[in-house]
Design brief:
The structure holds 2 protein chains of 2 kinds. By secondary structure, chain A is α/β, with parallel strands linked by helices. Chain A folds into 5 domains: 105 residues, Sandwich (Immunoglobulin-like), CATH 2.60.40.4210; 217 residues, Rossmann fold, CATH 3.40.50.740; 228 residues, Dimethylsulfoxide Reductase, domain 2, CATH 3.40.228; 63 residues, no CATH class; 162 residues, Barwin-like endoglucanases, CATH 2.40.40. In chain A, the strands form 6 sheets. In chain A, strands 5, 6, 7, 8, 14, 15, 16 and 19 form an 8-stranded mixed beta sheet that branches. Chain A has a 6-stranded mixed beta barrel with strand order 23-27-24-26-25-28. Chain A has a 5-stranded parallel beta sheet with strand order 11-10-9-12-13, with helices on both faces. The radius of gyration of chain A is 27 Å and the shape is globular. Chain B is globular, with a radius of gyration of 17 Å. In chain B, strand 3 and strand 4 form a beta hairpin. In chain B, the strands form 2 sheets. Chain B has a 7-stranded antiparallel beta sheet. Chain B is built from 2 helices and 10 strands. Helix content of chain B is 14%, strand content 24%. The chains are: A alpha/beta, B alpha+beta. Chains A and B meet through helix 5, helix 7, helix 8 and helix 27 of A and helix 1 and strand 8 of B.
Amino acid sequence: MSTPYYIPDQNVPLPPADADVITTACDYCIVACGYKVYRWPVKGNKVGGEKADQNAFGEDFPVAPLGSWVAPNQHNIVLHDGEPHHVVILPDKDAHFVNTEGDSSLRGGCIAQKCYNPERPTRDRLTAPMIRIYGMLQPVTWDFALDIAAEMGKYVIDKYGTNAYGVKTYSYQFMENTYAITKYALRSINTANFTFHDTPSDVSSTPGFRDAGFDNFGPAYEDWMNAETLLICGTDPYETKTILFTQWIMKGIQNGQKAIFMLPRKTAGVAYAEQNGGLWLDVTPGTDLLVVNAIARIIVENGWQDKEWIKNWVNDKWGSSSGFGQGTRNTPWQWRTTWGKFQTKGFDDWAKWLLAQDEFTLENAAKVSGVDAAKIRLAAEMMAKPRDDGSRPKTSVMIEKGFYWSNNTGNTQAISALGIIVGAGGRPGQVIGRAGGHQRGGVRGGGYPRNKSPMKLPGRRRRALDTDTWTMAGHTRMAHVIGTTWIQSMLGSQQMSARFHELTRGNPHQIQSINREKIIETLKARVDSGGMVVVNQDIYLVDPIGNQFADIIFPAATWGEEDFLRANGERRIRLYQKFYDAPGVAKPDWWIIANLAKKMGFSGFDWENSNDVAEELAKFTRGSRKDFNMVKVAARREGKTLHQKFREMGTNGIQGPVYMHKDGSLEGTIRLHDTTRKLLPDGPTAVNMYNKKLTHFNSQTGKCNIQKSPWSLFSDYWEWMKPKGDELWCTSGRANERWQSGFDDTRRPYIVQRWPDNWVEINTEDAKKRGIESGDMVLLSNDRVPSLKDTTLGVESSDFSFTGQLAKGNVEFSEAAVTAVAMVTRAVKPGVMYMDFLHSSQPANALAGRVVDWISGNYNYKMGIAKITKIGESPYKNTFRSMSFAPRDIVI
Amino acid sequence: MNMSQDVKTQSGMTRKQAAKAVGHKCLVSRRNFLIGAGVTTTIMITLNPGTPQAREVPAQISEYPRKFVAKLSDLKLNEPFDFNYPDEGEYSENMIVRMGVTAGGGIGPDQDVVAFNYACTHQGGSLYDSYKADTKSLGACPLHLSTYDLTRHGILISGQAYQSLPQILLELEGDDIYATGIFGLIFGRKENLHG
């Protein structure tokens, strides 16, 4: 951990002309900018000079703007083959794609600080496997730790069934790892008690996109720039996927693009858009659906919809009834449309429904959402009103978590319909998709065993298990947690923390011996008495899951410490190269899983290195958006390994799905659902495949489903949650500078200096009423946090709704409170507070209800509420070294 | 394919060309401003070991020149005054401003006079003419929108910069303000004093 005292170096060592140059991509946000690592040995004291021929950049210092300047935060010292080496890590100044102009964000720009260096705040990386004995974690050997974990895993599965073994894992930290983890959890163990870091159940993040037939990541980055009107919902890409904004959207705006932002907070990207002819729809949390449908209604009332597009690309009654070609049972779509709540007979049917809902009138939408009616009307005009010559604006729609984690099902259904009627989704510059969060590093090594889930929905099908409720109810006897905090990233965090304690350290059966048999005996007694064993696999000791609750710790190797593959938000796949030694005996997650799996008696884990894993998983990408099976085929033809082939592609990589021509050359896919694309006349030859999504949408007919989005399915929860009395909305999200919240950013002195504590933004008016000033220490409390008690079987159609759960007594209430430093600002909407989404000991998620969206099974994380009270002054109020209380919406 | 790097400004330049041009233009206009203001003569005082003056200067910045910047009584509230430091080379353009609020490193009776380098520590965009009196900030940088808090040692408010804006250390002697050092590496340079 770092203290907030950053003292910048006054000079930096430049890489000498003969430094090693290794390509990689940034580890952080979805954009995955291309980077170059310059590496040279410390011994010999060699450094580059200020003349172009004396340094590895071939540039004279001082460099020109946008040149290869090395900031002190871009240098580090690492071990490579056991010898100390300098590394300077810069955005690739020759990048052809993604971060053109060699641009970088603050987080990626300083990624050299991520590397393990015992003389810097990264010194607390996990370096050895550990077992908790007498309450303290003691280093042991890999063999010993894996042995205990395997014995306990087998015991729990044999005695309590596969669903007693829970796996909670990241979804993104490189394909080789996610493939190994899912192969182990889903294929080998076959547990339904499985989910990813950002959801309580293994379900779609964007149910409406899925139903409409949209891929989350169909668009290319150039499309976001080339749109003439761009609606961005629930994110400011400048803050959280910077280069997507600075290299693409910002240039679009400079070319006249009208960018419309819908979110309750104004940050730099929003301010820039407003300054340049765009619009800020300052929506109250949870009311996005009303604004989206009000915009749609204005468009329909004026006949501004893209009639030609709708005629050609929207399903009619028969088309939508044909669904997704998955049969009539067990498809999410099938269940969701059983009662006719969503499905329509096509555009006319949808429009009739839309116009009949009084809540979507402009007046009502403006009133409930708090967005000025004139701005809603203007947004409709910008998106769809034909010009005098009859031509239409090229309109695109981007969504992200502020939007789809507010009313998960409703918002994503509504935006899909709006996207369809403005003609977004299938043409250059006219696209719809997610902006993205983490990078796309998931490849499934097994299918989710849905039929093992005890959660059965009214009607026909089972739903993926809500692992939080299942664990809180005591059904998880062994929890295997990989690269996530679990507790603080899920809702009702403080109750979860208390319950985890009860199940682990609060249980009387604690290890008090280093004897293998006695340890296993103790842990068996733990689970037999209703307790839980926790295995935690991570790069740092995370509090509390690792630090307080885990019995066994596996230290993981990560970015830069192993060769890995991953895709970005435009499906661009690249090799992230190893350039230094992992700390201690830390191992990549695929290795840990493979050795654990082998000890448990599972076959299919005999990989020698990460390339072996990559070559196995390549075939499982077939048909997916990042299908790169043909890269492997091409590599084989050329006598290369798959990683070797990707290494040659450097920071360019290739966009999936990948096609191989007869001469062995490879061609990527610029965008999915590209209705303007002409595929090769002789079709997919040899082992190539053409997935429907290349030129059509993800439905049986290849056309879009236009669906209804009833407000009533969510309004009971929204009405119940909405602030009462002195409460305010307390929503949350990332801040640009502290994007990598709990791991790397707490170990970067400059970032800790900038953001030394948890913080909450409150509007100037709200603060004044409560006597709060910037820099005050405040307490945010919620005395009515709702949580689900247990997983349930739905019989009647409303059993899973919030009202239904309340009526059945399956909701309990508790209190939560977190502290923060107040930031009084004009840049957040009155009535709304905005907090950093994940401070380890002050999690914003504690203030939101642990109640899943009853249709999708996902959480609506952004629906937090709190009372705010001043409890004193923070040290930052009257000192100048750390933090800033200036607003984030300052324009050029 | 319309790619990002191909996008031209209205004058037909790429952004990289525009950034260079802006930097150059600023430099020229600021020099003109300095000439107009009659501050063409800069005073270099060589530190003399053993004098009280020399002892006031912290050891770590002893190699920086001591340079007259402006008279405190000439500084108008919220009106930045530009000067070059530590030399006349690339990225030596700075501003000094009396902000009317107490600031970290501020001098004067109200500790409200501070000076900062103009080159954005992200990618070297010029922050010339971007002072905002209401927020006491520099920026947003025209290249990638970084903003800096001048009351808090130039810390990044929002944006992409790799560190705070270099703060020029000031000393007040009577009514005369001197620049005596820089805290933080200036963009583009390997070392501050090798401009």
